[in-house]
Specification:
2 domains; two-stranded antiparallel sheet; 14 helices
Length: about 550
């Protein structure tokens, strides 16, 4: 549970902190709930177990699912057997055996690194890259004076300018208050940890404290914060951590406005960024600087099932092709476009994209890659983003809508759903949109693989997307002739309709799911398989 500073006032009064609440639960939080069925298990999951019951006796084909992400731990115990292995490449011989331009691409390729194997670990954000690159051309210019062939780029720059100015205003308004608040909380924290003789404390630890004036003052301060939450196990260190994180956010807001972004990527890749045909760069190092994100996403799709290790993925006959194009910070359009093309050219049937950004200056490169994937019957699954926004109004890229206004027939956009045991049936952070978002899928408290043979739960549409990609992969594995459009149709028609009111993300208002996505449904693997058996079984 995280504390999010929203209103910061003077040191002489208490800091008001809004925290996310937890709904009354009808069942305990449960790792792996995304695989369960509400009717059978009491969790609003996908019904994967019941789906496999329907498939007993039927043969599957191996489905290749590409994961465009931060990289992967290729030695993860519950995942390594499911990794795609390039059958035309001889490992470690330093040669491009299959002639695709990428040497020793055994499990995939990394577009975020140097030819010598050094990887990009931290990156800038697209809004600052766009803002500073085209500031001299567009600042103060009326749209009427912009040539037709520059209007899209101009619109991207204006969006970047608006976002960067908004963040800068937040920095100006709150930096002094957050600095004062940090002093207040750190000093009171020092008093209490010294008194209690422990580094961490929770609300219950303060119940019997009765000390000096300074100790009692510190107790009142911390109790007032703990009382605003519904998690009795929240720790002082959690609050201090989130306060520091918010301070760092404000500092970064200033830097993005005032400082020219460093080209960390170009220093390593050394390609001509604006030339999509300059495509042979990077390396095969998928693990270094990868973090946990790509490994977590991959496990949701394809961690080995029923092996009594860690957790179960969704697809039992899958190979995960990892393509690294998302370092810390924002991905680059060219890398994403080439990652899509690499996946298509190397046999992927489905591509998961758990990333995104609010501006996309070279969107046409990605649009062309999406169209190329469509021409080869490859499905793209994309998380809708975690800003609690209507992305019909505020685009989140990659977008299924092309620059000419048409919508890609092979792209599924997924919002994050929850459960009654969590924070309601719709995640409060999820982006939504009845035109852009197709359906919702479990994206809260999703337990999966991480690096060094560990496992942990995580929240995000980054988790909802691979849940949907996994269900799509299950369909493709047992019904290999299905096209992307047919898979999308099956998922949209077979989802679980939600009649309960849900909370509009980013607000406390009530709405219905059919006002948040096109289908008005949460993905349901069991019903999707049942419908596929009715329509496509031979």
């Amino acid at each position: 549970m995280k504390f999010f500073p929203k209103l910061l006032i003077a040191v002489s009064v208490l800091l008001f902190i809004q925290i996310t609440g937890v709904a009354q639960t009808t069942a305990p939080k449960l790792k792996g709930w995304q695989l369960l069925n509400y009717k059978e298990d009491g969790y609003m999951g996908t019904g994967v177990k019941e789906a496999y019951d329907l498939l007993k006796g039927r043969k599957s084909q191996t489905v290749i699912i590409a994961v465009i992400d931060s990289g992967v731990d290729t030695l993860q115990e519950d995942l390594k057997a499911a990794l795609w292995v390039n059958p035309r490449e001889i490992p470690g011989n330093g040669k491009d055996d299959d002639g695709n331009g990428y040497t020793d691409d055994i499990h995939g390729w990394n577009f975020c690194g140097s030819s010598s194997g050094e990887n990009l670990s931290n990156n800038t954000h697209e809004i600052e890259r766009v803002y500073h690159k085209w500031k001299n051309e567009f600042e103060g210019i009326s749209e009427k004076k912009i040539p037709a062939d520059r209007k899209f780029l101009y619109s991207q720059w204006k969006r970047a300018e608006s976002l960067i100015n908004k963040d800068y205003e937040e920095y100006q308004q709150n930096i002094k208050n957050i600095e004062n608040a940090s002093l207040l909380f750190n000093s009171s924290n020092t008093i209490l940890t010294s008194y209690l003789k422990k580094t961490d404390f929770i609300k219950a630890d303060l119940a019997a404290v009765n000390g000096s004036d300074s100790v009692n003052w510190a107790v009142r301060l911390w109790k007032s914060v703990f009382d605003r939450g519904s998690d009795p196990e929240i720790k002082n260190t959690d609050i201090i951590r989130d306060l520091e994180a918010y301070h760092n956010t404000l500092v970064n807001n200033r830097k993005r406005k005032e400082d020219l972004p460093v080209d960390f990527r170009g220093a390593l890749t050394k390609d001509n960024y604006e030339n999509i045909h300059d495509s042979i760069y990077g390396n095969n190092n998928l693990k270094s600087s990868s973090g946990n994100h790509g490994t977590h996403v991959s496990g949701i799709i394809g961690a080995i099932r029923n092996n009594n290790i860690g957790m179960d993925g969704i697809v039992d006959n899958v190979r995960i092709m990892m393509i690294r194009a998302v370092p810390g910070g924002d991905e680059h359009d060219k890398d994403v476009a080439l990652a899509i093309r690499y996946a298509v050219n190397n046999g992927a049937s489905i591509i998961n994209m758990s990333f995104g950004k609010p501006v996309s200056p070279y969107k046409q490169l990605v649009d062309d890659a999406i169209a190329y994937a469509a021409s080869k019957n490859v499905l793209l699954v994309h998380g809708s983003g975690n800003d609690g926004q209507d992305i019909d109004e505020n685009s989140f890229y990659p977008s299924p809508f092309m620059q000419d206004g048409t919508k890609a027939s092979n792209m599924l956009t997924v919002g994050a759903s929850g459960d009654y045991s969590l924070d309601g049936l719709v995640a409060g952070f999820s982006n939504y949109g009845i035109k852009t978002v197709d359906l919702f899928a479990p994206g809260m408290y999703i337990n999966s693989t991480i690096t060094n043979n560990n496992y942990e739960p995580a929240d995000g549409t980054s988790m909802a997307s691979p849940v949907a990609a996994g269900v799509a992969g299950l369909l493709k594995s047992y019904f290999p002739a299905l096209t992307p459009a047919q898979i999308i149709d099956l998922l949209m028609r077979s989802g679980t309709s939600i009649t309960d009111s849900v909370t509009l993300p980013g607000t406390d208002k009530k709405t219905t799911l059919n006002k948040l996505c096109k289908s008005g449904k949460i993905i349901n693997a069991y019903e999707a398989i049942k419908l596929a058996l009715q329509q496509y079984a031979h």
